[in-house]
Structures are given as C-alpha cells and as structure tokens.
Amino acid sequence: MYRSLCLIAVLLLGPACTAPFDGPSGVCEARRFEAIADTMWETYRTSDRAFVLGAMLEDGVIHAHPSAPPANIRLVVGSGQPPEITRDEMPVHVALHWDEDTPMPDAGYPVFISMHGGGAFTAGENNEQWEIQQQRYPAVRGLYICPRSARDTWDHWHEAHMFGLIDRLVRAVLLRDDIDPDRIYLTGYCSGGNGVYQLGPILADRWAAVSATKAIHEGAPLANLRNCPIDIQWGEADPDTIDRPGLNRIAVDELYALHNADRGGYTFREIEHWRQGRFVNDKSTVGWLARFTRDPYPQRVVWEQNGDVRESSNPIRHQFYYLAIDADETFDGTGPDRIISELDRDANTVTLDVTGYDTVYLRLNDAMLDLDQKITVVCNGRVVFHGQVERSVATLEKTLAERGDRRYMFPVELAIDVVEAGASGR
Asked: Pick from 69, 48, 71, 72: which is nearest to 61 by CA?
C-alpha cells in the first residue's frame, strides 16, 4: 500500500491525546482522527501511485489503477499538433486562466473540465472541435481542462468507459495542492453536452455544478442532481433533425417537478437562445457555474441508478457522497434502484429510504454528525442502529483508496441490512 498508510496512522494514534488536542475526550478523538486523515492524504498525494496519476499535470501518460479496465489519460499541455488517438486514451489540454496580479484564492483555483462537440466524424474533425473548445470561454478564470474524447463515435462522451476516464481525471486534479476540491465544474457543448447530461448526474458528487449546451438528455437520472446545479442552454432555431429544443424542455420540466417536490434542491437555469441554432452563445455559463461550491455532505442525498438505460451507457457506481453499495451488486434492469438519505445533525440521526438493495453502507465523519454521541439510523421506517460508533484507521484508508478525495475519507462505516429493516423493493 502507498507507503503503508495504515502503519503511519497507527503511529499517529499514539497512547493518548496530547497538545494540541487538549480538551474533552470526544473533541480530542475527533481532532486526532482529522490529523490522521490529513497525514494519510498527504502521504497518498506524494506516493508512487499518486505520482503516476498526477503526471498528467506535467506531460505524461496516466495509466488506470491496476484493478480497473485498461485505459489511459494522456496529457497535452498548451498548443501543438493533436496526437494520434488510440483506444481508451484521452489527451487533455490544461491551461491556467488567471490574472497575474490577482492572488490565488485561499481555497485554491476553481477547475473547469470542458468537453467538446463532434462525435461520429473523422479524427481531424473532432480534433478541430477540441481546439475550438479550448477557446470557447474567454471569461473563464481558473484551471481550464479540455479533454479530447477517446473515440470518434456519436456517444464519445458517454460510452461506459468514459465514466472511468473522467473520474480518474478528477482524481488526478484532486492531487494538486493549488485547486479547490469543492469547485470542480463540468461543461459540455453539443455532444459534449450530451456527456454532461450523463456524467453530471452519475458523478454528481464530484461536481460543484455542471452545464450542458445544445445537448440531448439520454436518460441518466436527473434526480441525482439534487445538490449539483445544472445550466441548460439551447438554440430555439436548432436546424438538426433531432428535436433538441423539445428534448431540453422535457428535461427542464422534469427538473421543475423535482424542485417543486423538494424545494431545498435542484437548482438549475434554462436559456433558450432566440434565433440561434447551429451555434449557441453560451459564454455566460462559466460565470453562472462559478457561483456554486460543492457540499460533500449534503443534508439530503438522492441516489438513483436506473436499470432501464444501464446496459447502453450508464455504469454501476458503488459510492455516491457518503453512501455505498456492495462491489458485486447486480441489477435486474426492471427500474430505478434508489437510496434517499437525510442527515439530522441536531438529532444525530440518519434516515434512509431504500429501494432495490439488500445492503447499503453508510459512511460517517465528524463533519457530518457527532461521532462521540450515540447515533441513530432509521431505514425504511425502522430503527436499525442506535449506539456508539468506533472510528477506524482501516476505514479511512479504504475510503481514500476508493475515492481519491480528501472530503470522502470516512473513519466510520455502518452496514445497513435493508431486508431486516423491511421490504428492500426487489
């Protein structure tokens, strides 16, 4: 394991809490595990494994984690001739857009990942769209990243392998010490926007906000965008045979319905550009996105995986915010499998409404609940846990390995038997 994080953490645990952790024992324990997590994260960031991943921010090749399907991310810094594309490789253009006389924000630079249009065209035509995307938003301020799609197909941004590539791109970005991990945005134009409609909801816990321009919603569950704002723009005079205006209005109507039923979530903006069609001026989107910051532990989480479209492009995810399912979980494709979770910090309670799973996993840290007091978990109307929890270094290590995100390192994991709680919905 990367520099034996577990050993380092055990050494940090020490025999007892001392300065600077003086105070009530609960506070002491919370601060000690926070320090362990910080050290574990820094050790991971500078490990050999992370070095290979982080090399993309120089000029190298990113190889997938050994347990993942074969795939690479290749970086192209600055301008130059587009490289030849091979299967499951994703060249990435990276540039920092920031005024020299403006200090870097204390939390780090915002990050914009922007996906180009094109699709089932020649490699040269898609390279041209990639180059256009690199210049699309002159007002952008932050680290601007334009990946070049791995393949030249109509669904080049939401084939199943793309979810792993984009997720590994995010993990590589998170290794930088000059970016804000809670201000990572995803944008896409035309077929890139189609990708946002898929990657946005399925990877919603990665993003602060997303935008899809001149795009088509292909079935990913918009319900997952409860805590991830989305900007949708299209041209009223779109000339294509595909009814983009009508399809976008359907998606907007669904978002209105979701928001009306849950007023605390589903922030979105819709812009229909009058008399614009083939070209849509969406330059305002980066300013709108930049208003938002990710909440990694929202009070309410909606996680839906809709089996009816999974076979075409949507992969199974096994973690979402602070929730997880079994790694070998399978789906019968009969409809959406759903978890709705609500945190009540005052009552130190988590309430789960689960459909379609026999077991779910609840991850907790001290930013979510008071882990030194008894915690109550209610699942499908029944109390399934009430008592003290124990922080674990091994759980910190496990969740770091799974997510590669400091925010999603958790010292506590509770396995919830949904069948015991009542009907699981299978």
From this structure: 72
d(CA 233, CA 251): 11
| Distance of alpha carbon 422 from alpha carbon 50, whole angstroms | 42
Token representation of residue 138: 């002159």
Q: Which two tokens stand for residue 323?
A: 């929730």
Q: Block means of pLDDT (10 residues each) for the chain, length 426 residues?
A: 43 40 60 93 77 46 35 39 51 89 95 92 88 94 90 81 84 91 97 94 97 92 97 90 89 97 96 90 96 98 74 74 89 77 98 94 97 96 96 94 95 93 51
Please spell the DSSP secondary structure of 69-136, one letter per residue: PS-EEEEEESSSPPPPP-TTEEEEEEEEE--TTSPPPTT-EEEEEEE----SS-HHHHHHHHHHHHTS
Bridge partners for 414 per DSSP: 362
> Which residue shows structure tokens 């069609």?
277
Contact 341, 361 (CB under 8 A): no
Residue 117 CA, chain-centre distance (Å), reads: 21
- Residue 45: phi, psi to the nearest 5? -60, -30
Count of CB atoms situated within 10 Å of the CB of 11: 11
Going from the C-alpha of 170 to that of each of 145, 296, 321, the distances in angstroms are 10, 15, 15
Whether the pTM exceeds 0.90: the reply is: no
Asked whether the beta carbons of 371 and 364 are under 8 A apart, the reply is yes
Three-class SS state of 208:
coil
Question: Order of strands across the sheet with 319-320?
Answer: 319-320, 323-324, 359-364, 412-417
SS (H, E, C) 137-168: CCCCCEEEEEECCCCCCCCCCCCHHHHHHHHH
Got the DSSP string for 245-260? HHHHHHHHHHHHHHHH
Pick the closest to residue 184 from 142, 133, 130 (CA basis): 142
- Residues 71-84, buried b or exposed e (16+ Cβ, 10 A)? bbbbbbeeeeebee
Residue 107: CB atoms within 10 Å = 12
Q: Are 108 and 180 in contact (CB under 8 A)?
A: yes
Beta bridge partners of 359: 417
Residue 151, Cα to own-chain centre: how many angstroms?
Answer: 22
d(CA 408, CA 296): 8
Q: Return the bridge partners of 304, or none.
A: 338
